[in-house]
UniProtKB/TrEMBL annotation:
The keyword Metal-binding applies. It comes from the Bacteria. Residues 1-33 are annotated as: Disordered. The chain crosses the membrane at residues 265-286. Keywords: Hydrolase, Magnesium, Membrane, Metal-binding, Transmembrane, Transmembrane helix. This is Putative enzyme. Pfam families: HAD (PF12710).
Protein backbone atom coordinates (compact mmCIF):
# COMPACT_ATOMS: atom_id res chain seq x y z
CA UNK A 1 0.00 0.00 0.00
CA UNK A 2 2.85 2.39 0.78
CA UNK A 3 4.23 2.19 -2.75
CA UNK A 4 0.79 2.79 -4.25
CA UNK A 5 0.02 5.74 -2.02
CA UNK A 6 3.44 7.29 -2.64
CA UNK A 7 3.00 6.91 -6.39
CA UNK A 8 -0.50 8.35 -6.34
CA UNK A 9 0.61 11.35 -4.29
CA UNK A 10 3.57 12.02 -6.60
CA UNK A 11 1.31 11.76 -9.63
CA UNK A 12 -1.33 14.12 -8.24
CA UNK A 13 1.26 16.74 -7.31
CA UNK A 14 2.80 16.65 -10.79
CA UNK A 15 -0.59 17.11 -12.45
CA UNK A 16 -2.03 19.88 -10.28
CA UNK A 17 -0.83 22.64 -12.58
CA UNK A 18 -1.28 20.77 -15.85
CA UNK A 19 -4.41 21.07 -17.96
CA UNK A 20 -5.15 18.31 -20.46
CA UNK A 21 -5.86 20.06 -23.76
CA UNK A 22 -6.19 18.03 -26.92
CA UNK A 23 -7.01 18.79 -30.54
CA UNK A 24 -10.50 18.01 -31.81
CA UNK A 25 -10.33 14.96 -34.07
CA UNK A 26 -13.84 15.52 -35.39
CA UNK A 27 -15.01 12.13 -34.16
CA UNK A 28 -16.76 11.10 -30.97
CA UNK A 29 -16.68 7.32 -30.40
CA UNK A 30 -19.24 5.61 -28.20
CA UNK A 31 -16.42 4.96 -25.75
CA UNK A 32 -14.93 6.79 -24.01
CA UNK A 33 -18.04 8.71 -22.97
CA UNK A 34 -17.66 12.41 -23.66
CA UNK A 35 -17.87 14.61 -20.58
CA UNK A 36 -17.78 11.80 -18.02
CA UNK A 37 -15.54 13.46 -15.44
CA UNK A 38 -15.78 10.50 -13.06
CA UNK A 39 -14.01 8.32 -15.62
CA UNK A 40 -10.30 8.23 -16.41
CA UNK A 41 -7.85 6.01 -18.26
CA UNK A 42 -4.78 4.22 -16.90
CA UNK A 43 -2.04 3.10 -19.29
CA UNK A 44 0.85 0.77 -18.58
CA UNK A 45 4.01 2.12 -20.23
CA UNK A 46 6.45 -0.61 -21.29
CA UNK A 47 5.37 -2.39 -24.48
CA UNK A 48 1.90 -0.82 -24.14
CA UNK A 49 2.55 2.86 -24.83
CA UNK A 50 6.21 2.47 -25.77
CA UNK A 51 8.17 -0.26 -27.50
CA UNK A 52 10.63 -1.76 -25.03
CA UNK A 53 11.20 -0.78 -21.42
CA UNK A 54 11.72 2.79 -20.24
CA UNK A 55 14.27 1.78 -17.60
CA UNK A 56 16.55 0.23 -20.24
CA UNK A 57 16.40 3.30 -22.50
CA UNK A 58 17.09 5.43 -19.44
CA UNK A 59 20.14 3.28 -18.67
CA UNK A 60 21.47 3.78 -22.18
CA UNK A 61 21.09 7.51 -21.80
CA UNK A 62 22.93 7.50 -18.49
CA UNK A 63 25.75 5.49 -20.01
CA UNK A 64 26.08 8.06 -22.77
CA UNK A 65 26.54 10.64 -20.03
CA UNK A 66 29.19 8.49 -18.32
CA UNK A 67 27.13 7.62 -15.25
CA UNK A 68 28.55 4.09 -15.36
CA UNK A 69 31.17 1.93 -17.09
CA UNK A 70 31.17 0.20 -20.49
CA UNK A 71 30.80 -3.27 -18.97
CA UNK A 72 27.42 -2.27 -17.54
CA UNK A 73 26.11 -1.22 -20.95
CA UNK A 74 26.23 -4.83 -22.10
CA UNK A 75 23.82 -5.73 -19.30
CA UNK A 76 21.41 -2.96 -20.28
CA UNK A 77 21.64 -4.00 -23.95
CA UNK A 78 20.97 -7.64 -23.03
CA UNK A 79 18.03 -6.70 -20.80
CA UNK A 80 16.52 -4.61 -23.60
CA UNK A 81 17.06 -7.41 -26.12
CA UNK A 82 15.48 -9.94 -23.76
CA UNK A 83 12.48 -7.72 -23.17
CA UNK A 84 11.95 -7.11 -26.90
CA UNK A 85 12.34 -10.77 -27.86
CA UNK A 86 10.36 -12.24 -24.99
CA UNK A 87 7.65 -9.60 -25.19
CA UNK A 88 6.94 -9.79 -21.46
CA UNK A 89 8.23 -8.61 -18.14
CA UNK A 90 10.51 -11.07 -16.37
CA UNK A 91 10.55 -10.13 -12.66
CA UNK A 92 14.22 -11.06 -12.21
CA UNK A 93 15.36 -9.01 -15.20
CA UNK A 94 13.19 -6.04 -14.20
CA UNK A 95 14.42 -6.17 -10.59
CA UNK A 96 18.03 -6.32 -11.75
CA UNK A 97 17.46 -3.27 -13.95
CA UNK A 98 15.86 -1.32 -11.10
CA UNK A 99 18.68 -2.22 -8.70
CA UNK A 100 21.21 -1.09 -11.29
CA UNK A 101 19.42 2.21 -11.82
CA UNK A 102 19.17 2.90 -8.09
CA UNK A 103 22.86 2.33 -7.56
CA UNK A 104 23.70 4.54 -10.53
CA UNK A 105 21.59 7.53 -9.47
CA UNK A 106 22.53 7.38 -5.79
CA UNK A 107 24.05 10.71 -4.76
CA UNK A 108 22.73 12.58 -7.80
CA UNK A 109 20.22 15.40 -7.53
CA UNK A 110 16.60 14.81 -8.49
CA UNK A 111 16.60 17.98 -10.60
CA UNK A 112 19.60 16.69 -12.56
CA UNK A 113 17.87 13.42 -13.41
CA UNK A 114 14.70 15.23 -14.48
CA UNK A 115 16.67 17.36 -16.92
CA UNK A 116 18.50 14.33 -18.28
CA UNK A 117 15.18 12.49 -18.56
CA UNK A 118 13.95 15.14 -21.00
CA UNK A 119 17.01 14.59 -23.16
CA UNK A 120 16.75 10.80 -23.02
CA UNK A 121 13.11 10.96 -24.08
CA UNK A 122 14.10 12.78 -27.26
CA UNK A 123 17.07 10.50 -27.92
CA UNK A 124 15.58 7.05 -27.30
CA UNK A 125 11.89 7.09 -26.45
CA UNK A 126 9.96 9.50 -28.67
CA UNK A 127 10.30 7.37 -31.78
CA UNK A 128 9.21 4.24 -29.91
CA UNK A 129 5.73 5.41 -28.92
CA UNK A 130 3.05 3.12 -30.38
CA UNK A 131 0.85 5.35 -32.60
CA UNK A 132 -2.16 3.12 -31.96
CA UNK A 133 -1.94 3.32 -28.19
CA UNK A 134 -1.24 7.04 -28.40
CA UNK A 135 -4.51 7.42 -30.36
CA UNK A 136 -6.40 5.54 -27.65
CA UNK A 137 -5.05 7.90 -24.99
CA UNK A 138 -5.93 10.87 -27.17
CA UNK A 139 -9.52 9.63 -27.45
CA UNK A 140 -9.87 9.83 -23.66
CA UNK A 141 -8.34 13.30 -23.62
CA UNK A 142 -10.68 14.42 -26.38
CA UNK A 143 -13.58 13.13 -24.27
CA UNK A 144 -12.47 15.41 -21.44
CA UNK A 145 -11.06 12.62 -19.27
CA UNK A 146 -7.77 12.43 -17.39
CA UNK A 147 -5.18 9.95 -18.61
CA UNK A 148 -2.45 8.53 -16.37
CA UNK A 149 0.59 6.39 -17.04
CA UNK A 150 1.02 3.60 -14.47
CA UNK A 151 4.47 2.05 -14.58
CA UNK A 152 7.29 0.44 -12.62
CA UNK A 153 9.66 2.96 -14.22
CA UNK A 154 10.96 5.79 -12.00
CA UNK A 155 8.21 8.33 -11.46
CA UNK A 156 10.42 11.19 -12.66
CA UNK A 157 10.90 9.50 -16.05
CA UNK A 158 7.22 8.52 -16.22
CA UNK A 159 6.23 12.13 -15.58
CA UNK A 160 8.47 13.33 -18.42
CA UNK A 161 6.88 10.85 -20.83
CA UNK A 162 3.35 11.71 -19.68
CA UNK A 163 3.95 15.43 -20.09
CA UNK A 164 5.55 15.05 -23.51
CA UNK A 165 2.55 13.01 -24.67
CA UNK A 166 0.12 15.56 -23.30
CA UNK A 167 -1.27 13.20 -20.67
CA UNK A 168 -2.48 14.20 -17.21
CA UNK A 169 0.33 12.65 -15.18
CA UNK A 170 2.02 9.44 -14.11
CA UNK A 171 2.16 6.90 -11.34
CA UNK A 172 5.62 5.37 -11.05
CA UNK A 173 8.15 3.83 -8.70
CA UNK A 174 9.24 6.43 -6.14
CA UNK A 175 12.94 6.61 -5.29
CA UNK A 176 13.80 8.07 -1.91
CA UNK A 177 15.50 11.46 -1.84
CA UNK A 178 16.73 13.58 1.04
CA UNK A 179 17.38 17.24 0.41
CA UNK A 180 16.78 16.69 -3.29
CA UNK A 181 19.45 13.97 -3.50
CA UNK A 182 18.75 10.29 -4.22
CA UNK A 183 19.65 7.90 -1.40
CA UNK A 184 19.68 4.73 -3.51
CA UNK A 185 16.56 3.37 -1.78
CA UNK A 186 12.90 3.11 -2.75
CA UNK A 187 9.82 4.49 -1.00
CA UNK A 188 7.87 1.27 -0.56
CA UNK A 189 8.06 -1.36 -3.31
CA UNK A 190 8.42 -1.02 -7.09
CA UNK A 191 5.12 -0.15 -8.75
CA UNK A 192 4.62 -3.56 -10.32
CA UNK A 193 1.77 -6.09 -10.38
CA UNK A 194 -0.58 -5.71 -7.39
CA UNK A 195 1.15 -2.47 -6.38
CA UNK A 196 -0.16 -0.86 -9.57
CA UNK A 197 -3.70 -1.79 -8.62
CA UNK A 198 -3.20 -0.27 -5.17
CA UNK A 199 -1.86 2.94 -6.70
CA UNK A 200 -4.80 3.20 -9.10
CA UNK A 201 -7.28 2.65 -6.24
CA UNK A 202 -5.57 5.32 -4.16
CA UNK A 203 -5.61 7.81 -7.03
CA UNK A 204 -9.22 7.00 -7.91
CA UNK A 205 -10.26 7.65 -4.30
CA UNK A 206 -8.39 10.96 -4.22
CA UNK A 207 -9.85 12.04 -7.58
CA UNK A 208 -13.42 10.81 -6.80
CA UNK A 209 -13.37 8.50 -9.83
CA UNK A 210 -15.80 5.65 -10.45
CA UNK A 211 -13.55 2.74 -11.43
CA UNK A 212 -16.45 0.95 -13.10
CA UNK A 213 -16.47 3.79 -15.63
CA UNK A 214 -12.69 3.90 -16.04
CA UNK A 215 -10.45 2.14 -18.57
CA UNK A 216 -7.05 0.46 -18.20
CA UNK A 217 -4.60 -0.69 -20.84
CA UNK A 218 -1.68 -3.12 -20.55
CA UNK A 219 0.35 -5.73 -22.40
CA UNK A 220 1.29 -7.88 -19.39
CA UNK A 221 -0.46 -10.55 -17.33
CA UNK A 222 1.31 -8.96 -14.36
CA UNK A 223 -1.20 -6.11 -14.71
CA UNK A 224 -4.32 -8.27 -14.46
CA UNK A 225 -4.96 -6.86 -10.94
CA UNK A 226 -5.04 -3.32 -12.39
CA UNK A 227 -7.09 -4.33 -15.42
CA UNK A 228 -9.58 -6.15 -13.21
CA UNK A 229 -10.28 -2.97 -11.23
CA UNK A 230 -11.92 -1.08 -14.06
CA UNK A 231 -15.07 -1.47 -16.09
CA UNK A 232 -13.23 -1.19 -19.40
CA UNK A 233 -10.04 -3.32 -19.47
CA UNK A 234 -7.99 -3.54 -22.67
CA UNK A 235 -5.21 -5.97 -23.55
CA UNK A 236 -2.70 -4.10 -25.75
CA UNK A 237 0.10 -6.06 -27.45
CA UNK A 238 -0.68 -8.80 -24.91
CA UNK A 239 1.67 -11.55 -23.77
CA UNK A 240 0.29 -15.06 -24.12
CA UNK A 241 -1.07 -15.28 -20.57
CA UNK A 242 -2.88 -11.95 -20.81
CA UNK A 243 -4.23 -12.79 -24.27
CA UNK A 244 -5.73 -16.01 -22.95
CA UNK A 245 -7.16 -14.30 -19.87
CA UNK A 246 -8.61 -11.46 -21.94
CA UNK A 247 -10.30 -13.83 -24.35
CA UNK A 248 -11.81 -15.84 -21.52
CA UNK A 249 -13.28 -12.69 -19.95
CA UNK A 250 -14.12 -11.08 -23.31
CA UNK A 251 -11.88 -8.09 -22.70
CA UNK A 252 -11.04 -5.97 -25.70
CA UNK A 253 -7.80 -6.85 -27.49
CA UNK A 254 -5.54 -4.73 -29.66
CA UNK A 255 -2.16 -5.73 -31.08
CA UNK A 256 0.01 -3.14 -32.82
CA UNK A 257 2.96 -5.49 -33.35
CA UNK A 258 1.45 -7.32 -36.32
CA UNK A 259 -1.30 -7.02 -38.89
CA UNK A 260 -3.72 -8.85 -36.61
CA UNK A 261 -6.79 -6.91 -35.62
CA UNK A 262 -8.83 -7.70 -32.55
CA UNK A 263 -12.20 -6.49 -31.29
CA UNK A 264 -12.87 -2.94 -32.45
CA UNK A 265 -15.84 -2.18 -30.24
CA UNK A 266 -15.26 1.26 -28.78
CA UNK A 267 -11.83 1.65 -30.44
CA UNK A 268 -11.35 4.87 -32.44
CA UNK A 269 -10.49 4.39 -36.09
CA UNK A 270 -7.41 6.55 -35.56
CA UNK A 271 -5.85 3.77 -33.48
CA UNK A 272 -4.26 2.05 -36.45
CA UNK A 273 -1.47 -0.50 -36.50
CA UNK A 274 1.93 0.99 -35.61
CA UNK A 275 5.29 0.00 -37.03
CA UNK A 276 7.87 -1.82 -34.90
CA UNK A 277 11.12 0.03 -34.39
CA UNK A 278 14.41 -1.78 -34.02
CA UNK A 279 15.03 -1.12 -30.33
CA UNK A 280 17.01 -4.32 -29.81
CA UNK A 281 19.28 -3.73 -32.77
CA UNK A 282 19.91 -0.17 -31.65
CA UNK A 283 20.93 -1.27 -28.18
CA UNK A 284 23.34 -3.90 -29.46
CA UNK A 285 24.74 -1.61 -32.15
CA UNK A 286 25.41 1.10 -29.56
CA UNK A 287 27.28 -1.40 -27.44
CA UNK A 288 29.45 -2.45 -30.40
CA UNK A 289 30.26 1.14 -31.28
CA UNK A 290 31.37 1.83 -27.70
CA UNK A 291 33.63 -1.19 -27.41
Amino acid sequence: MLAGEASAEAARKSAQSAEGTAPDTGTEPDFPVHGDDRAAAFFDLDNTVMQGAAIFHFGRGLYKRKFFETRDLARFAWQQAYFRLAGLEDPEHMQDARDSALSIVKGHRVSELKTIGEEIYDEYMAERIWPGTRALAQAHLDAGQKVWLVTAAPVEIAQVIARRLGLTGALGTVAESVGGVYTGKLVGEPLHGPAKAEAVKALAAAEALDLSRCAAYSDSHNDIPMLSLVGHPYAINPDSKLRKHARELEWRLRDYRTGRKAAKVGIPAAAGVGAVAGGTAAAIALHRRRR
